[in-house]
Design a protein that fits this description.
With 78 residues, this protein is mainly alpha-helical. The two termini are 22 Å apart.
Length: 78
């Protein structure tokens, strides 16, 4: 679950950057759509973790995963 989330988060960050730079045909609208999907993914994973693990700190866990991606890429999802 962590790996898949980090792939989606990384993709959203890259698309956002490409859209800003006008690369690969990505637009700001595309970037917004992809980031909305990534944020939706956050909510789903938090809900799943809370349900399965009875973990009230699921948001902190997922935020930590996102932080790892953002640190690696040197930028964050806006």
């Amino acid at each position: 679950m962590k790996s898949r989330f980090q792939q989606r988060w990384s993709q959203a960050i890259c698309v956002q950057q490409w859209a800003k730079e006008g690369k690969n045909g990505w637009t700001q609208e595309d970037a917004k759509e992809i980031s909305n999907i990534a944020y939706g993914y956050v909510y789903v994973i938090v809900d799943v973790l809370e349900a399965i693990m009875k973990q009230s700190k699921a948001t902190d866990v997922v935020r930590g995963w996102a932080d790892e991606v953002e640190e690696k890429l040197g930028t964050s999802l806006e």
